[in-house]
C-alpha cells in the first residue's frame, strides 16, 4: 500500500489544494489529507469545519481520507505508515522554505517529500489571500469549490 499525506492548514481548502489532492490520488494507493492544527494561527474556520469541507470536496475520490493532527507532521506520517509527503509548489518563492522543511522532515524520519508543480491557473492562489479578498468584498467564487465559497460568504455575513 503506497500512502501519501497532503498536509496543510486548509483554512479553507481552495481549488489549488484540490488540484494537488486529485493529482496525488492518481499516484498513490491512498492519500490522507491532514489538517495540521496550529493554535497560534488565527483561523476563519474551526478544524471540524475544515475537515467537513475537505470531506465534501473530495467525495468523488474514494482513496482519499481526511484527518487532523496536532504536532510534528513526520510523527503523524510514521504513526500511520505513510511514506511520502506531497506538497504543491506554486512558484519559486515557495521553494526555499519547502526545501528546508522537506530536508528537515527527511532527516528526522526518512519520510520523503514530493513536490507537485501547481496548475498555473492557481499559481497565485492561497487561502490567506482568498480570505483577504473576500473580506473586502472581492469575488473569489472561481477560486474555491462552490460549497466552500458559500460557507465563506456565510462566515463573513456572521461577522458583519
Ligand atoms: O497550509 P500551510 O499552513 O502552508 O501548511 C504548513 C504545514 C502545516 C504543512 C507545516 O507548517 C507543517 O508541516 N506543520 C506541522 C508541524 C511540523 O512538522 N513542523 C516542522 C516542519 S519541518
Would you summarize the structure shown here?
With 160 residues, this protein is of the alpha/beta class.
Please characterize this protein's 3D structure.
Helix 2 (47-57) links the parallel strand 2 (30-36) and strand 3 (64-69). The chain has six helices and five strands. The chain has a five-stranded parallel β-sheet with strand order 3-2-1-4-5, with helices on both faces. The protein is of the alpha/beta class and 160 residues long. The protein has helices spanning 15-27, 47-57, 73-79, 92-109, 127-135, 146-159, and strands at 3-8, 30-36, 64-69, 84-89, 112-117. The protein is 45% helix and 19% strand. The protein is globular. 4'-phosphopantetheine (PNS) binds next to strand 1 and helix 4. The site of 4'-phosphopantetheine has 9 residues, from strand 1 and helix 4.
Amino acid at each position: 500500500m503506497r500512502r501519501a499525506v497532503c498536509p496543510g492548514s486548509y483554512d479553507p481548502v481552495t481549488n489549488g489544494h484540490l488540484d494537488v489532492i486529485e493529482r496525488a490520488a492518481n499516484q498513490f494507493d491512498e492519500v490522507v489529507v491532514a489538517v495540521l492544527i496550529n493554535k497560534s494561527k488565527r483561523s476563519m474556520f474551526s478544524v471540524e469545519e475544515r475537515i467537513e469541507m475537505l470531506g465534501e470536496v473530495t467525495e468523488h475520490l474514494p482513496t482519499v481520507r481526511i484527518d487532523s493532527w496536532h504536532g510534528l507532521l513526520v510523527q503523524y506520517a510514521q504513526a500511520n505508515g505513510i511514506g511520502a509527503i506531497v506538497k504543491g509548489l506554486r512558484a519559486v518563492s515557495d521553494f526555499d522554505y519547502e526545501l528546508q522543511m522537506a530536508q528537515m522532515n527527511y532527516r528526522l524520519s526518512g519520510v520523503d517529500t514530493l513536490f507537485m508543480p501547481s496548475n498555473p491557473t492557481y499559481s497565485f492562489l492561497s487561502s490567506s489571500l482568498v480570505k483577504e479578498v473576500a473580506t473586502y468584498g472581492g469575488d473569489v467564487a472561481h477560486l474555491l469549490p462552490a460549497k466552500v465559497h458559500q460557507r465563506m460568504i456565510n462566515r463573513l455575513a456572521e461577522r458583519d
